[in-house]
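Ligand-bound model needed. magnesium ion.
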Amino acid sequence: MAKTAIVDIDNTLWQFCDAFHVVLLKINNTFPPPGTWKTWDIFDGYCSTDDFHDAINWVHAHQDRDDFVPYPEARNFLASLKANGYHVTIASHRLPEYREPTERWLDRHGLVYDELHLSHHKTDLFNASTSVVIDDAPQVLEKAVEAGAIATGLLFPWNMEYRDDGFKLYPNLNEILKNILNSKK
Ligand SMILES: [Mg+2]
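Prediction:
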C-alpha cells in the first residue's frame, strides 16, 4: 500500500490567518490580530458567526488572488514528499465549491499533489496507509496520532498549548520536512 501524506492548506501551505484577519478588520476594525488567537471563539463579541464564516469563504473564493501566496518553502516541501515516495493528498477544510480557485492557486505556484480533498471531514481520510498528517489544527493532529500517523505542523498560538499531545510543531516547513524524512515512516 502506498504511504500517504495528508497535507492541509490554510496555515500549512500559506499564512491564511493574515489574509483572514484583513477581511475580519473590514467587519470590525478592532478585531484582535492572529498572534492572539488561541481558540475558535475568537469572533465572540467582534462579529456574528455568519460574518465569521462568510469571511473564511471570501478568502477561499479568492484563493487565486495575486497577493495570496504560499510560504516560500511550500513548493519544495510538496515536491520532496513526492520524491520520497509519498502519495500527497491535499486536504482542506473548505467548501467544495471553491475547488476551482484552489486548483488554480496550487497549479499557479507549482504546488504538486496527487489528490485534492475539500470537505469539513478530512479526518475521515485517515486509514492504515496514512503515514503523515501535516496540519495546524490540534483536533486534526490528535486524530492523526490516534490513527497511528506521524502528526506534525506549523506552530501557532492556537496549537502551542497542545504540543505535548503526541505531535510535533515547528516554525517552518523545512523543519517539518526534515522531521518527516528522518522518521522514515
Ligand atoms: Mg489549517
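The chain has two domains: 4-14+71-183, 16-61.
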